[in-house]
Amino acid sequence: MIVTQTVPQTPSETPTPTENATPTPTASAAPTGTDTAEGGLPPWLWWLLAVVLTGLVAYLILRARRRSAWDAEAAETEVDVRWLALELLPQLQQSGTPDALAGGWHVSAARASAVEDRLTGLETSAPDELRATRARHLRDAVRAARADVESQISSGDQASTPVVLAASIARLQELLNPAPPTG
User: Among 6, 13, 114, 159, which one has the highest count of C-beta atoms within 10 angstroms of its own C-beta?
Assistant: First the structure.
């Protein structure tokens, strides 16, 4: 015969929740756009900073190119002002007759007028006030030289022509070769 023995079983106890239970720590939620990792800046701020810096660099490059192009055009125009001051006006100053003065001017008046027009354009497009002032002063001197020649042609006074044109030449040369600052 087989004897089986039974072991008395106790009912299993289930823990009852208590009111003072502390929650177990869980993983934190993913950071949002305004959260920062370890005190750093949010990513969108870095992107904004990169865009602003890129725009600033592009602006500075364009400004430098514009200034360089203006300087090149001004240098070309000054070559024509030098031609007027060092070649044309001295030749006209040496003309022996009112007809020679009128003929020499007639051949070159369009070029002198074009120089004046270019200087007007340079004044309005100058990148700074110093350059605009220089272009304006050169333009005014070229305009005065043109007016001097035309007044000499219309007056027919060949005796005063050398003196009047010498004053125009001196005015242009003073602007083209300014005296060094003293101090």
Answer: 114
Report whether pLDDT(8) > 70: no
**Do residues 157 and 137 touch, judged by C-beta distance below 8 A?**
no
Per-residue pLDDT tens over the stretch 80-133: 999 999 999 999 999 878 899 999 999 999 999 999 999 999 999 999 999 999
Q: Are 160 and 92 in contact (CB under 8 A)?
A: no
What CA–CA distances, in Å, run from 125 to 31, 63, 121, 173? Answer: 52, 12, 6, 24
> Rounded to two decimals, what is the model's pTM?
0.67
Backbone angles phi, psi at 127, to 5 degrees: -75, -15
Secondary structure of 74-100 in HEC code, one letter for each residue: HHHHHHHHHHHHHHHHHHHHCCCCHHH
* Long-range CB contact pairs, 107-112, < 8 A, 24+: 109/146, 111/80, 111/83, 112/84, 112/88, 112/142, 112/145, 112/146
Q: What is the pLDDT of residues 134-165, one digit of tens each?
A: 999 999 999 999 999 999 999 888 888 999 99
Those residues whose C-beta lies under 8 Å from the C-beta of residue 152, and which sit 6 or more positions away, are: 101, 160, 161, 164, 165
Q: Are the beta carbons of 89 and 168 closer than 8 angstroms?
A: yes
